[in-house]
Amino acid sequence: MSSSSLWMERGILGVVLRIGGAIITIIGVYIIYKSNNAYPEPSEPLWWTGLAVFVLGLHLFFFSNMPKHQIYEWLKSESIALTLALLIRWPIAEPYRIPSSSMEPTLHGDNRFGRGDRVFVNKWIYGVRYPFMNKRIWYGKKPERWEIVVFQTVEKNARHKTLVKRVVGLPGERVHIENGKIYINGKPLELPPDMPNIYYTSSSGGFEEMKYGIRTEDEYSLIPENHYFVLGDNSAFSRDGRFFGWVPNEHIVGRVSCIWWPPSRWRDFTGFSKTWWWKILCTLLTILLIIRLLFGRSVVWYRWNSNKLSHYFVYFLAYGIRLPFTRLWITQWKQPEKGDIVSYFVPENVEGIPEGTIACGIIAGTEGDKVLIQNGKLLINNNEFSHPLLSQSKLLPDYTSKEASYGYIKDKEHSVVPPGYIFVIWSVSDSTELKIDSRTYGWIKKENIIGKVKAVWWPPSDWKIFS
């Protein structure tokens, strides 16, 4: 098969994967939408199926134009991130969607896609629970009155298995609801100033199923040890402790910390946003975001004279300021020079290398320079090119004029760097399969340069700063 037909075949496959990935992603979104609108309640299995389809589509879409080594690095990074996310989600914190209106107006419930409040739940605060079990490994602080909690229902045939309510009664207390007020041990409770003005309904309103906190027998009024009485803020439309009774401590998943979605309804229920650690965390995240947008990014590429990969930090501002995520210069104060180690986008339509691939290399020639490779030596304007990396070993691989054109064929097209272009080299291994510099895919447009490579930051054994 000729190189042109091979490139065409790979290009067609990439387009098919990209289109297929986009279609699968849309299907995933539709499944998630249908799961949220399933009757009589949102379908969690269908939601997870939709999420899996959505993630698969995104991977096909983005990986369609990536080389194998970048796909491998992405999957490795995603695996680490997923593991960390699961480790955080199990014992520390987890996002939850509010399924109903029982906590209105404090929490807004809406099953429609993208609607309704999403909250973060602190699962560490009351003690870590065994996965998939209503049993704690260890106990933390005890739930306090008026805290909003997420818990597993005590009803066997409940419509919603996971509920969110407010703690009203504590272990050992006698609770009674009358005339819209809550009485604890015979004394009426005053609602905190940050709570809505709630009129708590009772059986006198016609709800015959209500017993707990309504009837005066010990079975329905005296909260057992290690149990809690929970109520919804939207009292008239909340199926809560008045119906299903006391909630054991082991059933409580965690404390609601904040509303994080939608942004317009952001609210901190526990005061964590005023703590020093939260302010430090937000500051660090802001700094990292600014660095990524304006100053630099990480790039995965081969080590010098090796087939192994390293993570390089690329500095954006070495040559000027670009509009983030584009190749447009806002201002430029320096031109790339010979000897600079740069990161750049590989030219389009290079055989075996997907469009958008990011590589690293040493600038050996700039516009107007004459490039010649003879006997394993790189000559620029008839002078041998020198560089600290190149002085450590010979330039690999050793191509022939049949395997690589630029620098080997002496005509002007293949030996003189055109205006607005550079010539880059990178030595990986004594293997002609790795065609990753200007010897094989030619001159690089200056506008393709992402920035200057300043350091190797991962793995730690390869830490290095380039002067």
Characterise this structure.
The protein is of the alpha+beta class. The protein folds into 3 domains: 3-89; 94-274, Umud Fragment, subunit A (Ribbon), CATH 2.10.109.10; 294-465, Umud Fragment, subunit A (Ribbon), CATH 2.10.109. 24% of the residues lie in helices and 25% in strands. The chain has helices at residues 3-36, 44-63, 68-89, 218-221, 241-244, 276-295, 412-415, 438-441, and strands spanning 93-97, 118-122, 148-152, 162-169, 175-178, 181-184, 187-188, 227-231, 247-248, 252-261, 267-268, 296-302, 309-315, 320-322, 329-332, 341-345, 358-365, 371-374, 377-380, 383-384, 421-425, 444-445, 449-458, 464-465. The strands form 5 sheets. Strands 1, 2, 3, 4, 8, 9, 10 and 11 form an 8-stranded antiparallel beta sheet that branches. Strand 5 (175-178) and strand 6 (181-184) form a beta hairpin. The longest helix has 34 residues, at 3-36. The two termini are 45 Å apart. 27% of the residues are buried.
DSSP, total strands: 24
**Any idea what the CATH architecture of the largest domain is?**
Ribbon
Class per helix and strand makeup: alpha+beta
- Regions with little confidence, pLDDT below 50 for 5+ residues: 1-8
Percentage beta strand: 15-25%
Look at the structure and give the CATH class of the largest domain: Mainly Beta
Rg, alpha carbons:
32 Å
CATH superfamily of the largest domain: Umud Fragment, subunit A
CATH fold-level topology of the largest domain: Umud Fragment, subunit A
How would the global form be characterised? elongated
User: Approximately how much helix is present in the residues?
Assistant: 10-25%
Residue-averaged pLDDT, rounded?
A: 87
Question: Tell me about the biggest sheet?
Answer: 8 strands, antiparallel
Number of domains: 3
Counting H and I runs of at least 4 residues, what is the number of helices? 8
Query: How far is it from the N-terminal to the C-terminal residue, by CA?
Result: 45 Å
